[in-house]
Amino acid sequence: MPDPPLARFFDRLAPTYDLLYPDWPTAVAQQGRALDGHLRAALGDRAHRVLDCACGIGTQAIGLAAAGHAVTGTDLSPVAAARATAEAAARGLRLPTAAADMRSLPFRDALFDAVVCADNSLALLTTPESVRTALGSMRRVLRPGGQLLLGMRAYEEARREHPEALPPRVTRTPDGGRAVTLQLWEWHDDGEHYDFDLIQLLPRGTTWEVHSRRATSWALTRAQVTAFVTAAGFEHLAWHDPEEGGYFQPLLTARRRA
Fold first, then answer.
1. Digit-coded pLDDT (tens) for 57-85
2. Which of 36, 77, 159, 179 could share a disulfide with 19, CB 3.0–4.6 Å?
3. How far apart are CA 118 and CA 59, in angstroms?
4. Where is the Methyltransferase domain (predicted)?
5. Which residue ranges form the domains of the chain, and what is each CATH number?
């Protein structure tokens, strides 16, 4: 079940993942506040047991831990998960993590009040069977009535227009230099899947160092995600646009049926 190529993709990306953001610490705080607001509104204004099942280097998990929640992180990449723990510790926060596939989460049933799956991670599962298995695994570790939070890219326009690239993004490195990130997309014949090259240009003295990694994604529409989540045993589904909920991507919230 584990996907070694995808794990290697994120192993290689983990050291420079923060450079995808203009200001990663600010993004951590903003995303944490937005997700914390959804959690407290749905489950009560108190700390909750939260699993971030695609935690990466901790972008969402650290923000939620800072908001007082008891957060556990898992990620397919052991390198990313280890960095998440270290980044949290550097901020005086506890964030236990483990390397695990979201399709086979290594926890007992009904352990968590909430499960977060953010940064478009679900779209990296490129078959219906994988998506169903992952959502079933998330549902299993949620208590009855627990909340699911899925952060997804808005793909409706991309599915119509099939872009070949995303605009380059210039960010600052910790030492004040500039880094450039861009994506090249190559669409499959089905019009739904695409291979993407994530390319980072990092300054090295008077020249640039190029890092390129390739993976495949499924451009899932909201209608497709809604159907998968409903079939997995969730109810009270609601989509929240960034303008509404303050989260940087469309966010789907749902509750596990009792």
1. 999 999 999 999 999 999 999 999 999 99
2. 179
3. 9
4. 50-146
5. 4-154+220-256 (3.40.50.150), 156-218 (3.10.450)
